[in-house]
Amino acid sequence: MAIKGQIYDVSQSRMFYGPGGPYALFAGKDASRALAKMSFEPQDLTGDVSGLGPFELSALQDWEYKFTSKYVKVGTVKGTGPIEQGNVSTTSEIQEEAAAVKLNGEKAP
């Protein structure tokens, strides 16, 4: 899942973002607009934040802070559309951090 073009590994919260979870529709997408608007509408599942008001932008900033403090950042969205193989770029620093995370979301020893 991505916020403001930054991809986060939310696998430690599968009950929320995995199949059947309340936020599963956000998985594999930049959900910036939806989070800012607190919306579950398909048209809001985009990284486009143009036209958002100050309250919505503040809400988005709060979400970004929560994700930064809770989840590992694993990449950056390169283009538009769903996050798919080839549609992301990662830096070596992010790759190293991602490699230290086990599938269950725990840090490797």
Automatic annotation (TrEMBL):
GO terms for molecular function: steroid binding. Pfam families: Cyt-b5. It comes from the Eukaryota. SUPFAM superfamilies: Cytochrome b5-like heme/steroid binding domain. It is a single-pass type II membrane protein. Its main location: membrane. It is found in: Cell membrane. Gene3D superfamilies: Cytochrome b5-like heme/steroid binding domain. Keywords: Cell membrane, Lipid-binding, Membrane, Signal-anchor, Steroid-binding, Transmembrane, Transmembrane helix. The keyword Signal does not apply. GO terms for cellular component: endoplasmic reticulum; plasma membrane. Residues 1-78 form the Cytochrome b5 heme-binding domain. The keyword ATP-binding does not apply. Belongs to the cytochrome b5 family. MAPR subfamily. This is Cytochrome b5 heme-binding domain-containing protein.
